[in-house]
Amino acid sequence: MPRLFLALLPLVLLTLLVSQLNHALASWHVSLFVGGLLVVFTALRLDFDTGFAAVFLTGLLCDAAAPVRFGTHAFLFATAHTLIFSVRGRLPRDETLVSLFFALLANLGIFIALSLLLLARSPLPFGSWPRLLSNLLCSQVFLALVAPWFFALQARTFSLAGFELRNTSRRHT
Amino acid sequence: MLPIRFDQAKPFLTLGLALAAWLVLPVVVKSVLRVSFFEMQAPVDTAVSYTRDLQDFWALRNHSKNELIEAGRDLARLNASYELKVQENIELHRDLARLEALLRLPSFENYRAEPARVVRRDFSSWWQRLIIRKGSNSGLTVGAPVIFTGGVVGRVSEVHAYTAVVDLISSPEVRLAATLEGDTRPISYQGALSASFGPARGVVEFVPLDVFATPDHAKLLVTSGLGGVFPPGLIVGALTNVNPSPDGLFKTGEVQLDPRLAELTEVTVLVPLEPAETKPPQP
């Protein structure tokens, strides 16, 4: 339970920070999406159960504030987490660049999945693509800039609480 | 033959079990969870909103006395002109009430205006919403229309304890019946996601064939009052172009919305009054 709380804390913090940033960017009709960043560290560095529970709860937090079917973000995050977790054995997962690459990839995947799920209700589904592409581009650039800080924050949260990440991840894999 | 390893399938099995459990979870539980997760975030949003107000207050405190005196003088002028408008408004209301009584028309005074601060703007790639700092504590109801000085903002889609969510008029979730100013024929309006760095927009359907509009000769689109949500005559936007629809019976068009919609800090919610609260027309 303490590990789940520690995993959840930075995820909730990032979700709230990005929502405030989006509030500030609203006048330019630009929105940032960082779903991929929420799942990568937990998938690459934590045991499956803790990581899965943390991303699922973060997804529910996103769902509560969005006009989507409750559980949409949660299951998209959980699916991305599961996919990354299943390939992490073959990766140098302590490397920041590897984490960054998977964060960008996961963000792209979740963004496209959400777009396909939600654009059907728009009266101009094809007219929305320029906005989607520009938002995706801004999100990926933002994600690439903040990801190293966020990974360090998550690692530091665990080390401050006295949890060793390497031991944690090896125990269940 | 190598033994089958189940440990690698465990993550996918867990995901599948979680999905199955989620699908059979009763709707009531999901609704309670949703409300709980929203209410957990609400204090953070509200606290940030109050901090922003405090920031503005301290920024204003830094103005010099001369600037404040000038602002006070300008406000006094505005107040004087508004006093006149209030007098005119009272006279017009009296006339309206008299005519309604004479013609035995139903009264339109079915709303109470409830001003509210904007806590957070959420203009994502897929929806456009506002969170405002009033909720069921101020008697707000789901579906209540929200307006500002430039016209329609949207309608309340969720009401929580002390916050409420407003679906913006530019959001694809919002549809309403509108008319062109000076015309009575209804047109269907729906929000459409705007381009980044561009103004908000919407689309209209079922526009009569004799209507023409260009960006230089835009036509004002107002609410029709049909549907019972929005009172008639509120500004929706400007119809900037129309094209024949594929069936050739009507036209479709694009509506340019007020650019101030993206920078709103305060809105007014029109709370429908209970029948007991409405004033019956004077005989």
Explain how this protein is built:
The complex is a heterodimer of chains A (173) and B (283). Chain A is mainly alpha-helical. Chain A is built from seven helices and no strands. Chain A has one domain. Chain A has helices at 2-25, 35-45, 48-64, 72-87, 96-118, 129-160, 165-172. In chain A, helix 2 (35-45) packs antiparallel against helix 3 (48-64) and helix 5 crosses helix 6 (129-160). Chain A is globular and about 50 Å long. With 283 residues, chain B is an alpha+beta fold. Among the domains of chain B are: 14-61; 175-261, Rod shape-determining protein MreC, domain 2 (Thrombin, subunit H, Beta Barrel), CATH 2.40.10. In chain B, strands 1-2-5-4-3-12 form a six-stranded antiparallel barrel. In chain B, strands 6-7-8-11-10-9 form a six-stranded antiparallel beta barrel. Classes of the chains: A mainly alpha (173), B alpha+beta (283). Chains A and B meet through helix 1, helix 3, helix 4, helix 5 and helix 6 of A and helix 1, helix 2, strand 1 and strand 7 of B.
Observed structural traits:
heterodimer, A: 173 residues, mainly alpha, 7 helices, B: 283 residues, 6-stranded antiparallel beta barrel, 12 strands, globular
- Assembly category: heterodimer
Order of helices and strands of chain B: HHHEEEEEEEEEEEE
Percent of residues of chain A in helical segments? over 70%
Distance between the termini of chain B: 95 Å
Helix run count of chain B: 3
Looking at the overall shape, the CATH architecture of one domain in chain B is Beta Barrel
Strand order of the largest sheet of chain B: 1-2-5-4-3-12
Spans of chain B of at least 5 consecutive residues whose pLDDT stays below 50 are none
CATH superfamily of one domain in chain B: Rod shape-determining protein MreC, domain 2
Shape of chain B: globular
CATH class of one domain in chain B: Mainly Beta
The share of residues in extended strands of chain A comes to: under 5%
Unreliable stretches of chain A:
none
